[in-house]
């Protein structure tokens, strides 16, 4: 029997759930406050085409392959994917440069060549330990809609050698200092905490498994990451999904113990057999979706928020620099940016990520490059915007990159920069944070809201929900939510 399902938000989590539900024959209506599907997967239109100003690193391809297979499609027939042989090129202020490759042997050889034999061996140990952690927790925790402590303990008991590697009382930063004698390598692998909006000093040692997601391959998409959202949207439309854009859901209505529909900005009420919320779950606990659902995801109300960012998107001819697709220009002092962020300051000595979208495997060097440049930032509640922020951020970013030999030949204006306040405006209740609540402490994974809520026909999906932030995780969350709906017979 076809059910009527409303999905609030057309981010990757919402789209993944929508396409699966529509494929199963349900009537799906997706309502988004933005002008198009994709949420954080966004572009800025430059003179040489659309420039990604959201995610750039596509990892964990099997998550997407499974999603497409579940709707009887082959991802490779819709999206041209290139596996990048270089995961990222890393640059330090002392002139050191290091590529990490998409296979262990090449990365180990390069680390040995650049940092010496001892570092090569340290990397091998770190690689193996983080792989063990990933393999141990992938199924029982990451691919589980509602993991709990008992399941986590069972997973570790099945592989007792993993217990010592979890370092339950250590932060990622201190754990990395014990792996690597060269602080530059600890700095490099510590940066992976920022992929989920954490810092190496506060993220648990267990977060070393994030690097494993990248070690298993990084893909670029022809046409940019935005193509993934466009393709999913099209597959939704082909299966009868209705999209309404530029419309905010202002209330989720409940009658007794079930949700019954939503209200939107112009006052229209839509009824539904089930509702999936793809916005930041903090919206619910803040009461933005009305009193009927304000007890949902209650812990997000006071939980510390993850990092925000300053994100540049522009195209320009560029001088110098042997750029790869993904490039990281490290700070002078490893923790200075995180110290500044924790004090509510714009980092003056940041690590800067530069995505040169037209570079990469087999790509000819373009005359004009499209760039996305990201600097970590405190969320809005930790730092209020100041009128000088644009000029300050511009000076910090481009003076620093110039020191690495990178000069961009173009005038760069406010329209090229997304700041924490812009993210806060686009993503209600996010506080400008890009990855939901901050991943602090050993059990942070278990403290995120899950896709299942105490209301049997209300579900949550997206980066603010377990298994967490990032495009593959949000897509996985959408799939887990639909599996849970099926299991709980919400759809029958
Ligand atoms: C600059 C940047 C770089 C990133 N880099 C990477 C990367 O390289 N790799 C990676 O894997 N991840 C990356 N991420 C993270 C990744 O983009 C996100 O985790 C993921 O896209 C979030 O998807 P989501 O399903 O949570 O939906 P979101 O993208 O958060 O979208 C939610 C949608 O819900 C809508 N919405 C919210 N509330 C309402 C309401 N009340 N009514 C109507 N609509 C509503 C919003 O308008 C929005 O469209 C990056 C993010 C950013 C911002």
Q: And the CATH topology of the domain at 4-41 and 223-303 and 443-487?
A: FAD/NAD(P)-binding domain
Mean pLDDT: 95
Strand order of the largest sheet: 7-6-16-17-18-14-20
- Strand content is 15-25%
Radius of gyration: 22 Å
Query: Helix tally?
Result: 17
Find the structural class using helix and strand composition.
alpha/beta
Q: What sort of overall outline do the alpha carbons produce when their principal axes are compared?
A: globular
Index terms:
492 residues, FAD/NAD(P)-binding domain
Outline of the structure:
The protein is an alpha/beta fold.
Folded structure, characterized:
α1 runs parallel beside α11 (226-238), α4 packs antiparallel against α5 (117-142) and α8 (172-179) runs antiparallel to α9 (183-190). The protein has helices at residues 12-23, 61-70, 75-78, 104-115, 117-142, 149-158, 161-166, 172-179, 183-190, 209-215, 226-238, 282-285, 336-342, 389-403, 420-426, 444-447, 471-487, and strands at 4-8, 27-31, 43-46, 49-52, 81-83, 86-91, 97-101, 219-221, 242-244, 249-255, 258-264, 269-271, 274-277, 308-316, 318-319, 326-329, 352-356, 369-377, 407-408, 417-418, 458-460. The termini are close together. The radius of gyration is 22 Å and the shape is globular. The strands form 6 sheets. The protein has a 7-stranded mixed beta sheet with strand order 7-6-16-17-18-14-20. Among the domains are: 4-41 and 223-303 and 443-487, FAD/NAD(P)-binding domain (3-Layer(bba) Sandwich), CATH 3.50.50; 103-215, no CATH class. With 492 residues, it is α/β, with parallel strands linked by helices. The mean pLDDT is 95. Residues 8-14, 31-34, 39-41, 54-57, 248-249, 278-279, 283, 309, 311, 374, 427-428, 434, 462-463, 469-472, 474 line the site of flavin-adenine dinucleotide (FAD).
